[in-house]
Write a structure and sequence with these properties.
Layout lengths: L3 H8 L3 H25 L2 H5 L6 H8 L3 H17 L2 E4 L2 E4 L1 H6 L5 H26 L11 H7 L4 H11 L6 E6 L5 H9 L3 E7 L2 H13 L6 E5 L11 E7 L10 H9 L2 E12 L5 H11 L10 H10 L3 E7 L6 E7 L5
Parallel strand pairs: 3-4, 3-6, 4-5, 6-7
Antiparallel strand pairs: 1-2, 7-9, 8-9
Helix pairs in contact: 2-7, 7-8, 9-10
Length: about 350
Amino acid sequence: MSIKPVLKLMMNHQLLALTGSNALLKPFYQLNYLVAAKECSVFELLLDAPKSFDQIAEVYCADNKAREALEGWLGLGVRLGYLRLDSSGYSLKGLAKKLAMPQNDAALALLQEAAGLHSKLISQTLRKLRNGELWNLEDQDGEIIARSSRIMEVFQTEAIDRFFPASGVASLLEIGCGSGIYIRYAANRNPSLTALGLELQPNVAEVARRNISEWGLEDRVRIEAGDIRLKAPDKCFSIVTLYNNIYYFPVKSRVSLLRHIRQFVKPGGFLLLITCCQGGSLGVEVLNLWGAATLSGGRLPGKHELINQLRDAGFRDVQAIRLAPGEELFAFKARTGENA
């Protein structure tokens, strides 16, 4: 092989651009392949046992041309290291096998979120800004967001263990309850706890209702679809929570929002607010972009900024506890400043 083409690329200042661009292609292909395997039910098909090409073709192919395309798609999966082909047929391998396990659904949903919402957010935000447009809450898939948010579950349940009473009467208002998973955790931990889950997106609220029913918690938990800002204050909750959703509200309205939320907390009760803050990982930077570029939302808060906003809203004894090592993920606990 002649080295002249390589030298020519180097002399024309093209070599580094070419090699750098090629380095980006494999993770791009890997991400999209994993998401396609999930969304087209390949994980479910191959999780329990290997399948022959003919068995897979029965699911996906209508004719011989389709079989040719399927062979190419499966071959790409083998090349990427996500499928194994041997005498028993095709099976999942490596990361694909791990992600197909139910306990890793949050990580898989995060990949779906990255390939969908994050990709559009990065590629289309400037075009929207130039046209005088912003993103809307409806531009995200609420069910995927509810699933991917569980990536923080181990840290958020640690905060619940730390701050929630394990026994005795307790009433919880969870603002932005998502799938209801954290209500279930709190309710299972304390058999005397009752809860109201308030969810802005009706389709996500319906998912939460189904979950609460399946978990046998209907006698202690209610789910409502609605906006906390439109709900009449009622000081009947000993605990109010906001998990990873303060950026759904504009920065300029956060003090008034928190002041309104304080009107739902019983004397002696507390607010537990968990959020990523400014200066985190790349994923947090994308989250910051989503909040900033969403019509009804706002950028991520700074840690000290949020502490001051809570105090301005009338909360006292504000604590900020880092939940994830090396990440700007904090739990803010704040009391009403009133005696029980």
